[in-house]
Amino acid sequence: MTHDFDDAHALDDRSPLALDDLAAFAGFDVAELREWVACGLIDPLDPSSGDWRFEARTLVVVRRAARLNPVDIMRGASG
């Protein structure tokens, strides 16, 4: 499934994003976002669920964090 800006523009917090969709919209691999969850950078709505879903605003967080230096991202996760 491909996503474009029109898809992302239509998001709101009433429609949680699946992990696959979050990765596609943000331009990341699912494995990378799983690492971000493990580090506490982003939080799924129900971490114990096998089918992670995220608030739509998590897309903004991921896109902003992607512009940071990876060292800055990890510094934020640890402190």
Describe this entry's structure for a reader:
This protein is mainly alpha-helical and 79 residues long. The protein has five helices and two strands. The protein has helices at residues 5-9, 19-26, 30-39, 57-66, 70-78, and strands at residues 17-18, 53-54. A two-stranded antiparallel ribbon has the order 1-2. The chain is globular and about 30 Å long.
Short description:
It is built from 5 helices and 2 strands. The protein has helices at residues 5-9, 19-26, 30-39, 57-66, 70-78; strands at residues 17-18, 53-54. The relative contact order is 0.18.
What are the salient characteristics of this protein?
single chain, 79 residues, mainly alpha, two-stranded antiparallel ribbon, globular
C-alpha termini separation: 36 Å
- Would you tell me the overall average pLDDT? 80
**Secondary structure tally: strands:** 2
SS field, number of helical segments: 5
Strand content: 5-15%
Structural class based on helices, strands and sheet pairing: mainly alpha
Please provide the ordered H/E string of secondary-structure elements: HEHHEHH
**Apparent shape:** globular
| Uncertain residue ranges | 4-8
Gyration radius (Cα, Å) is 12 Å
> What percent of the residues sit in helical stretches (DSSP H or I)?
40-55%
Strand order of the largest sheet: 1-2
Q: In this structure, how is the largest beta sheet organized?
A: 2 strands, antiparallel
